[in-house]
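Progress against Task 2.4 (sequence-to-structure conversion) is shown through the following example record, which the project officer requested during the mid-term review.
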Amino acid sequence: MAIQVTDTLSIDEDEITETFIRAGGPGGQNVNKVATAVQLRFDVRHSPSLPTPVRRRLEARAGSKLTKEGVIVITANRKRTQDANRRDALDRLTTMIAEAAIAPKTRVPTRPSRAARQRRMDKKTQRSSVKRTRGRVRGDD
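Structure tokens generated for the chain above:
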């Protein structure tokens, strides 16, 4: 089954590996017995679902979550139940991929208008005259 990330992008569930580990934090006596934390792994470099530009942006966006082998590792232990942590980890991964799927806007360089250049020069002239009038006051001795 495929996980829908955006309208045009989806990843296959087989590309995601989940391992369950014991989590610290609240949970009482249950915390030492039940593996509620989820460690989700997604191989970015070898994923057939991702186009090359999305893959590059995702690797750049992942930061410390990306291993040297190109695998994103997300550990979710915020919630108390295993199912809630699975959903949390999957949501974080899909959000990260969706953000990487948005291509950045290219900057179109513009030039200042003639009026803007003139305003700038007028301000510079005004400021220069203010500074020119500063100084010692001369007496008529």
